[in-house]
From TrEMBL, chains A, B:
Span of the signal peptide: none
Chain ranges of the HTH tetR-type domain: 7-67
Coiled-coil parts of chain: none
Top-level taxon: Bacteria
UniProt keyword list: DNA-binding, Repressor, Transcription, Transcription regulation
Record flagged with keyword Transcription: yes
DNA-binding region in chain numbering: 30-49
UniProt-listed InterPro entries: Homeodomain-like_sf, HTH-type_TetR-like_transc_reg, HTH_TetR, KstR2_TetR_C, Tet_transcr_reg_TetR-rel_C_sf
Gene3D superfamilies reported in the protein's UniProt record: Homeodomain-like, Tetracycline Repressor, domain 2
The protein's name: TetR/AcrR family transcriptional regulator
Species this protein is from: Reyranella aquatilis
Length: 212, 212
DNA sequence: CCTACCGATCGGTAGG
DNA sequence: CCTACCGATCGGTAGG
């Protein structure tokens, strides 16, 4: 049987935990909170998990795994000859979707990782590193193909991009803008910048420079 | 007297609380943790503060006030005729400095605001809104002066910029790059983008497009 | 999975 | 500011 009853119940507990961690933080979530939402008594949780840390570990690991898979799937569905900008847009859309609408597991990562016990962080960090390297490769490709300028610091770029996406979990409201549209705007800012091109700048700022 | 002893002690408690909240989250920080660091017994905290929420409120409010003042001071120190790009760099440097090296109060904001009790959030949000509007005005100026393209969505730009800065609290290590250098890179990415300009793109991608 | 409970710790208070 | 303590709650366990 691919879905024994106990596995389903375990899922229910993890779902409840992911949501609670994401809303109230780690220490702010009690075993009883999780148990109530999952429809059982507090003590019963320990039939499925060894400890509260154990639950947190699984929530965090599942969260990274899901966003990683979503990004890989999105890029993998594109024709191999796609431009970097298309791959970027696909990855940004996937990341934002997991974070903002699919994702108690992913948003729990954003919100409680820093407060997790050291052992939990250490394990989860392996997955995070792999995901970060995946983004690093994507950007490297873009630079090799010439679509990212040669003198751009890819580490900073990656951290800025992931940072601005992750922070969206604190302000995004689904009624104001659909995620694909948001993803497109993110990509435009990063790729084209918001300033004028150098020659446009040359003209418009001459007066101001002369004055100072 | 401008610094009565009790005010100094109160400061010591707030300093200890800001650091503890930033490291361990709100629920993860106990009154005793704070008291020990501040050099007193747990119960004594209540001679200075009404409740744990009260301490949190002050830490969060001070954090926003400080980063706001730092940004205003940095921009205010520039000649009035300064270009938008210079003002932006000054503000980014100020924000990052408060967040990454001066700032348990500011980083506590990043890390525990979401888990604060509703009443605390409500009050702190007023300061946050004012600070956000200050950034909005700065960007508006830049767009009016022509240094930001007319078709850029300033709300998204502001949220991306602040988001990528705030997220730096999770990865920045002072031994790898000084803050002014980091600030400059942030500004470059945002203003110039990382891609080629349109006409450069026109040439380099022609072959790729024909293939697909 | 539940019942019943433990040892520890928490935020907060009384009285000085 | 300290001492001494409260009521409540916490993560976790034993036994079924």
């Amino acid at each position: 049987m691919s879905h024994p009853k106990s596995a389903i119940t375990k899922q229910r507990i993890l779902d409840a935990a992911a949501r609670a961690f994401s809303l109230n933080g780690y220490a702010g979530t009690t075993i009883n909170d999780i148990a109530m939402t999952a429809g059982m008594q507090g003590g019963s949780i320990y039939y499925y998990f060894e400890s509260k840390d154990d639950i947190l570990q699984e929530v965090l690991d599942v969260g990274i795994t899901r966003v990683f898979s979503a990004a890989r799937l999105a890029i993998g569905s594109l024709p191999a000859s796609s431009a970097f900008s298309e791959k970027l847009e696909a990855a940004v859309t996937a990341h934002l979707t997991m974070l903002l609408q699919q994702g108690d597991y992913t948003s729990a990562n954003i919100r409680v990782f820093e407060q997790a016990p050291p052992a939990v962080k250490r394990q989860n960090r392996k997955l995070r590193t792999a995901y970060g390297e995946y983004w690093g490769q994507l950007l490297s490709e873009g630079q090799r193909s010439g679509e990212i300028r040669k003198n751009v610091d890819l580490t900073i770029l990656r951290l800025m991009l992931l940072g601005s996406m992750n922070w969206a979990v604190t302000w995004y409201r689904s009624d104001r803008m659909p995620i694909p549209e948001l993803a497109l705007k993110f990509c435009e800012v990063v790729l084209k910048g918001v300033g004028l091109s150098d020659d446009q700048l040359e003209n418009s700022s001459r007066g101001r420079r002369a004055r100072s």
